[in-house]
Write a structure and sequence with these properties.
With 141 residues, the protein is mostly helical. It is built from seven helices and two strands. It has one domain. 4% of the residues are buried.
């Protein structure tokens, strides 16, 4: 092999190394961008909840978050569905344009979702004399 062939091979190897380094750097940038996007979506979701929920409902939801993370996640998924996530930037623009939302989600709705997730059914009991029976039994008699 003569000197020009060695230089050519060296040059080609250097080009391959540069392409691989560029691919690695691009992959890292893409990974960081995806990580930032996930953080920003969760922050945006949290902001939407803060705006849409009544203050006592938001505080109650945060207390559930600290006590029962699984229940919180189920309620969060119910409130912030994939459709909401897809259009979250649009929702934020509407919220900022209008200065908030006209009607906020009350505490009762969060309690209802919590009970639904936990599988707790409502039970209305009627006291007739000394007997205590549920409403369904009372109405059938």
């Amino acid at each position: 092999m003569n000197e020009s062939d060695k230089d050519f091979e060296q040059h080609e190897l250097e080009k391959i190394r540069m392409r691989k380094m560029k691919a690695i750097i691009d992959a890292k940038k893409q990974q960081e961008f995806a990580k930032d996007r996930v953080v920003s979506i969760s922050e945006k979701g949290e902001y939407v909840l803060k705006v849409v929920l009544a203050p006592e409902a938001y505080n109650y939801l945060n207390s559930i978050k600290s006590k029962e993370p699984n229940v919180y996640q189920a309620i969060y998924n119910e409130l912030i569905s994939p459709d909401v996530i897809q259009s979250i930037d649009y929702l934020l623009a509407i919220i900022q344009q209008r200065g908030g939302v006209p009607k906020k989600i009350p505490l009762d709705a969060i309690i209802y979702l919590e009970r639904k997730v936990k599988g707790i059914k409502s039970k209305i009991q009627v006291k007739r004399g000394d007997d205590l029976m549920d409403l369904g039994s009372f109405l059938t008699k």
